[in-house]
Each structure stands twice: as structure tokens, then as C-alpha cells.
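Raw record, unedited: Phage tail protein
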Amino acid sequence: MPTDPYRGFNFKVEIDGISEAGFQECSGLDANTDPVEYREGTDPNHVRQLTGLNKYSPITLKRGITDSATLWQWRQKVIDGKTERKNLSIVLYNEAQEEKLRWNLRRAWPSKWTGPSFNATSNEVAIETLEIVHEEMLKG
């Protein structure tokens, strides 16, 4: 019997040394290998496709802005030229709150922070966005 798909709202982001960061949205789980075209001299009419470099898209995390400065301090270190790389995990849970899937991202650092938009006629939560780049993704 096939297993039902997991729902995308039941996840947690774990960042080394940062425990109070709860996120409402996480996107960018993407792995890509660029093809490298190669022509062999013995077969000049066909292009061979070799594997090139592995690339990973930036992870975008969104959350309601709080008075915690931990994520901003991590970003500020990058701005100051003292980049601190951390390991990051994105964990998917089932409805019984059991861990089902985990993506481990290695050597990550925040490349972009975007503050909230303000609108005096709205009562929506102020959202901050953090974009994190990384060098490797492993499915755990």
C-alpha cells in the first residue's frame, strides 16, 4: 500500500547554535548539475553530455519579525567580513510529529536579509526574509 504524501506545513529549520528561529516558510530546496558539452574527435556529428558542477539554490526563510537579534547578528558578521558558516537542517514531520525526512545543508551563511513592508491600513504580521547560500545538500 503506498504511503500518503506528507504535508508541507509541518517542518522545522535547525541552524547550528540558533534555537529560537521558527519559520513560517522555507523554499529553495534545489540541486542541479550542469551538463558540459563535449565533442569526441571520432564522432564529430554528436555532442556528448558530461556531468559538470553541482549547484544548489539559495534557501529562503520567512518568519514574523521578533525582538530576537540572533539571525541579524549572524548576517551582520557577513557584512563585517567575518563570515560564520553553519550547518543547517530542514526537517519534515508527519502529522504525529515524527521526523520523516531531513535535508542537511553544509557550510551555509546568510547572503541576504530583507526587512518587513509596512502598511498602516493592514494588520498583517511584519515578515522578515533571510536568504541562505550553502555548498552541499545531503538527504538524511
